Amino acid sequence: MDLLTFDHSFVKVNGITMHVAEKSPCVSGNGAFDGVIYRHPVILFLHGFPELWYTWRHQMVALSSLGYRTIAPDLRGYGDTDAPESVDAYTSLHVVGDLIGLIDAVVGAGEKVFVVGHDWGAIIAWHLSLLRPDRVRALVNMSVVFDPWNPMRKPISMFRSFYGDDYYICRFQECGEIEAEFAKAGTERSLLEFLTYRSPGPILLPKGKSYDDPISLPSWLTDCDVKYYVSKYEKNGFTGPVNYYRNMDRTWELMGSLSKAQVKVPVKFVIGDQDLTYHIPGTKKYIHDGRFKSHVPLLDEVVVIEGVGHFLHEERPDEISKHIHDYFGSF
Q1: Distance from C-alpha of 257 to C-alpha of 314, rounded to nearest angstrom
Q2: pLDDT of residue 316
Q3: What are phi and psi of 74, to 5 degrees?
């Protein structure tokens, strides 16, 4: 896909400079954020790990052709957005602050946007909707369910109890350790370990793991796609993205005041039946037994797509674009 079909800008938000890609239904000669395009409904796309704004390229093209202004930032620590040095600068509260600043800057102060999230982007989208529902018109979230604050479920100890110390989230906790392993394996091989993962089982990265086994690209991931990801991760490394995981417990501590709080924006949730997140212990039951709906009372629809893994928006781009359009079109 030609990257020149997207507009790229840099915006000062919340103490950092954020890179933003945009695809709009009409093009102005004065830049990506010229006032002529503000009339169109805005969709804010939030990526996950180990991705970038680029993961939404198919949806941005499809939805912009249907009249939406589509915006996808590199989240803090990713791609061409600033990566603060402090490990503590990557809580959900920091990232939600970035996004409020972004919406204010490129859409307008007090304006609402449609939001689409996947993986870490889904977690951030839940927290954005929880903390600032006044800025979200509706949400299409993928892969990661809303996890209500629970005093008995500190995230890292929970995952360790499920999967042990080799689980990738647990392996990410020690600063510098996983970065050294990825440096030894090489950027491309490290990225492909995740981007090509298509098992419903957990990702395990035991110490001393060999990264020598060959990996074949799935049909939806091209050499050009991989080269783009590699170019950005070779520039800035994995520390910023991995710091999100290192702040899971800290975010949990900071969100304690939101115990029993509900997400009160309209939501459609989409997940693949082969997604590892769908197979986290207790998740299927939580989605289907009514508890998910009790915590997200405006949950309008849950879609489980058969035969699809974690990167469903890349594996089935047209189908996901249709799900987004059908839902947001109802508003």
Answers
A1: 36
A2: 98
A3: -80, 120
Of the listed ranges 129-133, 208-212, 310-314, the one predicted with least confidence: 208-212
Q: What is the pLDDT of residue 28?
A: 46
Q: What is the pLDDT of residue 39?
A: 73
Please check whether residue 4 is in contact with residue 68, taking contact to mean a CB–CB distance below 8 angstroms: no
Structure pTM?
Answer: 0.95
Model confidence over 82-114: pLDDT tens digits?
A: 999 999 999 999 999 999 999 999 999 999 999
Q: Give the pair of three-digit tokens for residue 51.
A: 């991705």
Task: Enumerate the active-site residues.
Answer: 119, 245, 310
User: Which residues have C-beta within 8 Å of that of residue 94, sequence separation ≥ 6?
Assistant: 14, 76
Buried b / exposed e across 269-290, counting CB within 10 Å, b at 16+?
Answer: bbbbebbbbbebeebeebbeee
State how far the Cα of 97 lies from the Cα of 199, in Å rounded to an integer.
Answer: 34
**Encoding tokens for residue 285?**
């039951």
In 196-275, which residue ranges form alpha helices assigned H by DSSP?
A: 223-236, 239-246, 248-254
**What is the dihedral angle through the alpha carbons of 264, 270, 273, 277, rounded to the nearest 10 degrees?**
-50
How big is the CA angle at 61 (ends 119 and 49), to the nearest 5 degrees? 20
How far is residue 59's CA from residue 250's CA, in Å, rounded to a whole number?
A: 33
Angle at 115 between CA 113 and CA 119, to 5 degrees: 160
Q: Which residues on neighbouring strands pair with residue 46, listed in sequence order? A: 117
Q: How far apart are CA 151 and CA 138, in angstroms?
A: 28
What backbone phi and psi angles, to 5 degrees, belong to 178?
Answer: -70, -30
46 in Cβ contact with 75 (< 8 Å): yes
Residue whose C-alpha is closest to residue 189's, from 213, 153, 207, 162: 213
User: In angstroms, rounded to a whole number, what is the distance separating the alpha carbons of residues 46 and 52?
Assistant: 9
For the chain, percent of residues with pLDDT exceeding 90: 92
